[in-house]
Design a protein that fits this description.
Layout lengths: L9 E2 L2 E2 L29 H20 L10 E7 L4 E9 L8 E9 L6 E8 L9 H9 L3 E6 L30 H16 L5 E11 L1 H12 L3 E7 L17 H4 L12 H5 L10 H6 L6 E6 L7 H17 L21 E6 L7 H14 L1
Parallel strand pairs: 6-7, 6-8, 8-9, 9-10, 10-11
Antiparallel strand pairs: 1-2, 3-4, 4-5, 5-7
Bound molecules: alpha-D-glucopyranuronic acid (GCU).
Length: 376
């Protein structure tokens, strides 16, 4: 379902490297998440709170663009469907009074007679709501007391260069103080408003909402979790470049590819394109995006043949973000050896690579469930 440019030599006129002996020295110019912009060291959790604010701003200004400060009223209504053995509801969320304004349906599955509010995995999806989860996935999650919810991302804003004209960004006056926001930021803002609505439901445990999405929606999962601390657990799948993969490795997709005018420039703030030509001086890299989620549990899911998304580059950024998790008293990968496929690491900053390509495979849902059960 997700479009991938796997294994072509040149994309958007820019060569693609798939050779380990040709990767960049990712350490060159790599910023340290545990050093303030002025060079001082981050020594404790209180320092980290301040450093985190600096890093968040770096990503707003250089990669995703900031959300507007003002709020707009969001309305929702709930419709319950009859279903055997489980509770199925559709939450219609509308972001505008405008008749043709952005609005979405969130499909929610909960156990039927739960005695307490239920933890929930929210899935940002490319699939129509009724096709997002296989029946056995729904059954497995609900039997363990974890609810599932899904929405189609393009209802928030269309995934194209002029999506801003009718989507979420059309609801706000143009402001570009901290970077003009790209489509990923708009999707992330929409998810955050949906969490406002989910948090008001008496059958959902607002302190246990996790988020997942694949590919560009893996990037969106990371950015939403960075912006919204209510996301208790984040599970980005195959998020690759602009997500969890270390940009400076120059393996598979690079910033120059993704931010090219021929590709996905509109998903980011315009400054991002410039860094494609000047990677060494780029003030951030993927490990800093991961660090914004610490100390919350974060599971990076990748695929062994998903070269375009650089699964190894995702593991390396987990290693580089690990000191932040450790500073905050949480565990994270430490073994420099790249893990084998289907051998999950369920540390608080976790990593799992399935055998296969750019997708969420059936076993991934089992990994997600195990990770959620461990940390909820
Ligand atoms: C393209 C893009 C990737 C993205 C993917 C997807 O391949 O280059 O960065 O992750 O689409 O969203 O499927």
């Amino acid at each position: 379902v997700a479009i991938s440019a796997q294994d072509r030599d040149t994309i958007a006129g820019i060569p693609v490297n798939y050779k380990e002996d040709k990767v960049g020295n990712y350490r060159e110019g790599l910023p340290d998440p545990l050093r303030f912009n002025d060079g001082r060291k981050v020594l404790n959790a209180a320092d980290w709170t301040q450093r985190r604010a600096e890093i968040l701003k770096i990503f707003e200004q250089n990669q995703f663009g900031a959300w507007p400060k003002e709020n707009i009223p969001v309305r929702y209504s709930i419709r319950e469907q009859s279903a055997e053995g489980l509770k199925v509801k559709t939450m219609h969320v509308s972001f505008s009074e405008r008749e043709d304004g952005p609005a979405t349906d969130v499909l929610i599955y909960l156990p039927k007679d739960a005695s307490a509010p239920c933890p929930l995995l929210l899935n940002l999806s490319f699939m129509p709501n009724d096709k997002a989860f296989a029946p056995d996935v729904i059954q497995k999650f609900l039997s363990k007391g974890i609810g599932l919810a899904t929405l189609h991302y393009s209802e928030l804003e269309a995934d194209k260069a002029d999506g801003w004209m009718s989507g979420i960004r059309s609801l706000f006056p143009y402001t570009a103080t901290d970077g003009e926001w790209g489509a990923i930021s708009a999707w992330a803002w929409g998810v955050s408003r949906i969490i406002d609505c989910l948090s008001l439901q008496s059958d959902i445990d607002a302190s246990k909402i996790a988020l997942t999405g694949c590919s560009r929606l893996g990037k969106t999962t990371l950015w939403t979790a960075a912006k919204d601390p209510r996301i208790a657990i984040a599970i980005p799948s195959c998020s690759g470049e602009g997500g969890a993969a270390m940009s400076r490795r120059l393996f598979g997709e690079t910033v120059a590819h993704i931010a090219s005018p021929e590709r996905y420039h509109y998903q980011f703030t315009p400054t991002y394109q410039k860094w494609g030509q000047d990677l060494k001086n780029m003030p951030m890299d993927a490990h800093m995006l991961l660090s914004l989620i610490a100390p919350r549990p974060l599971l990076l899911q990748t695929g062994s043949t998903d070269n375009w998304s650089d699964p190894k580059g995702e593991y390396i950024s987990a290693l580089e973000a690990a000191p932040v998790y450790r500073l905050l008293g949480k565990d994270a990968p430490s073994d420099p050896e790249f893990p084998k496929s289907e051998e999950p690491l369920f540390t608080t900053l976790g990593y799992v690579m399935h055998e296969g390509g750019h997708a969420v495979l059936p076993q991934d849902w089992d990994y997600y469930l195990e990770f959620l059960l461990k940390y909820f």
